[in-house]
Amino acid sequence: MVISQEMIDRLQRQFPNCTTSEALEQARVVVVRQDLQEVFQWLKEESGFDLLVDVTCVDYLNYRGAQQRFGLVYLLANTETSERLTLRVMLDETDLEVPSAVPTWEGADWLEREVWDMFGIHFTGHPDLRRILMPEEFIAHPLRKDYPLQGRGERHNFPVLTRQTGLK
Amino acid sequence: MALTASTLAPEGSSQQSYLWTLNFGPQHPATHTTLRLILKLEGERVVDAIPDIGYLHSGFEKIGEHLDYNQYVTVTDRMNYISPMANNVAWHQSVETLLGITLTRRCQYVRVIIAELARISDHLLSCGAIGLDVGAFTFFLYAFNQREAIYDIFETLCGARFTNSYTRVGGVLHDITPLVIEKIRAFLKTFPKTLDDMERLLNRNRIFVDRTKGVGILSREEAINASATGPVARASGVTRDLRRDEPYLSYEDFDFKVCCMRSGDCLARYLVRMAEMYESLRIIEQAIENLPSGPINVGPDERTTIPEKQQVYQTIEGAITHFELVMANRGFRVPCDESYAATESPNGELGFYLVGDGSHVAYRARCRPPSFLHFALFPRLIRGHTLSDVVAVLGSLNIIAAELDR
Lengths: 168, 406
Fold this sequence. Notes:
The structure holds 2 protein chains of 2 kinds. Chain A is of the alpha/beta class. Chain A has one domain (5-146): 2-Layer Sandwich (Beta Polymerase, domain 2), CATH 3.30.460.80. Chain A is built from 4 helices and 7 strands, in the order H-E-E-H-E-E-E-E-H-E-H. The N and C termini of chain A lie far apart (41 Å). Chain B is mainly α. Chain B has 2 domains: 5-52, no CATH class; 62-405, Cytochrome-c3 Hydrogenase, chain B, CATH 1.10.645.10. Chain B has 18 helices and 8 strands. The longest helix of chain B has 29 residues, at 105-133. Chain B is globular. The two termini of chain B are 23 Å apart. The A-B interface holds A 1, 23-24, 26, 50-54, 56, 58-59, 63-65, 73, 75, 79, 82, 84, 86, 105-111, 114, 118, 130-136, 142-143, 147, 149 and B 1-3, 53-54, 57, 59, 61-63, 65-66, 97-98, 100, 222, 224-229, 238, 240, 245-246, 336-340, 342, 349, 351, 353, 355, 357-358, 363-364, 366, 368, 372-373, 375-376, 405-406.
């Protein structure tokens, strides 16, 4: 269900650094990394977003118009009112440290492990940040856009791209 | 950090000397699929469990970035292969949310029917499997006999029994035929009797109740905090069902109950699934009797479904749409936007987070798998129970490794 405008306004007042938008009937909030932990706490304790639906990431390496490399996505829901909220944090390759959501929602445990495994984003304060789907000895992060679709053990044959080099 | 016995009890700790470490899986009849557990035992009691997954990881999300919106439906079949139709519906619902397509009424009803049939098929397997794991073999055969009938309906509907790939962007593969309707009606007549038989076989069976009651208790707060959804959450008293709370397709037209229990143990999860099958039957019955007439796919103006031959030959819109869709460098108009849409799949909330970049393939196709979050609950549920309860808890969570690992 669509979130109420009142909730968006409250969020905006509480955290002036965040930007809100709405598209396809889904409310989206872009939060700065410094606020993230407080936003989690506020949303859960004060606003009733008790269910963390998903944590995922998008690699905007060659996405048109993107400013930063990664967008971390938190999908939240309120089990009482069925409101939904999409929370996003933009990250650059130089600094991929993000505070973990596990202290707030335990469900974030495996979801953040998967994001670490697939994208190499490091969650500080996560109790057990190991690879989850790929084997322990695997070195790359396969859902990044510079990782090839095919090729057996051939990561070293493909260049590692950053947003700067990739745009040329 | 490598996953070894020392992960469970660090070297030199006082517990190390008398605790047993048992490796369960990845190949074990009771895991049903490929997943591994490392159990720390004190006698027969499980002190701790560490799930180790990834044995079936096949990079479905990476493939999603290279197959177009219609091709990828074949991959969703292979996610939760117990209820492929429900995955098809979930995938194309996400795509249609991104593309802004509104389905025809008939298509919505047909998708409701197949999604509910898939739910029955999934619940039959998961209830049957928990019965099998704790020793009720007859019950399992009753369940599988009826799944055969559902496979038969799906085969008549789309030609495939197991990997259906029935939905398309803006519609479905074929319209539903009178023969399929006849078969579904026959199923609606015969199935309640089998379901009653199954309930009589197991619900009050002393051995079954002793093995499942009070085992693997999940409280309501834990269920919400750990992101449990679907029957697992509803067995713990969370009254959340996306079919009622965020009606998609045409679920607001149907009269059905959301089945919940409070105790949150393995028996509650089994009973919730059994009760949901009756509700699914009611939904199918209402949908099949009120099936709207009219076209099944969206019109040629939407430019998403291949028009009928007659339209292609006789109307300019049909010809243009056909041309646009079959040419390699054409296709849908996809916005540069992101969206998330979820359905109440048999296992819980199954949603896809899609990022479109204007091309014919998704820039990112994230699947939110319910099994993944349910399996993370496993160590919490099994702690303090005996080794023989491992299979009961696993069965009641209905872990499908193909969906778990994708």
